[in-house]
Amino acid sequence: xxxxxxxxxxxxxxxxxxxxxxxxxxxxxxxxxxxxxxxxxxxxxxxxxxxxxxxxxxxxxxxxxxxxxxxxxxxxxxxxxxxxxxxxxxxxxxxxxxxxxxxxxxxxxxxxxxxxxxxxxxxxxxxxxxxxxxxxxxxxxxxxxxxxxxxxxxxxxxxxxxxxxx
Length: 166
Ligand code: SF4
Ligand code: SF4
Hints:
The chain is mainly alpha-helical. It folds into 2 domains: 5-80, no CATH class; 101-161, no CATH class. Helices cover 46% and strands 9% of the residues. The strands form 2 sheets. Strands 1-3-2 form a 3-stranded antiparallel sheet. Strands 4-5 form a two-stranded antiparallel ribbon. The protein is globular. The two termini are 23 Å apart. The mean pLDDT is 93.
């Protein structure tokens, strides 16, 4: 989450870039950040192409970032989601961005509530539910049309937060 007073209120409500909703891992760009992540107790791992990450949901997230006012890796302190980026460049108003983020939060809540009522899905995490439609819908999710459509809506909304084409 970016430290920016005008955005801090919505970020405190949201947390989707730290709680595993938007990302399953956070990219560490340099040695300094790697050492910082390790000193914070964040478990790091590297991929076959030698990129280094720490896991999401972040262990330091508890409703909000618990070290928000302390030194954090660049991927934390520099990140800003797409709607807030567009506010900065005057492409949309803060209200528009806030509505977009709140809609994603509400849709995520609806997905989890709907899944909790279905035996096959009641113990699924959000990422597991998103995987049901990726890369294409599995046969099981197609038997639950309402949930399927709600997950698709959520995927579209989340992609808009990270500028990913749906
Ligand atoms: S996704 Fe956007 S609004 Fe939500 S915490 Fe991250 S930067 Fe803030
Ligand atoms: S350290 Fe804070 S800002 Fe960085 S991923 Fe964890 S909770 Fe988010």
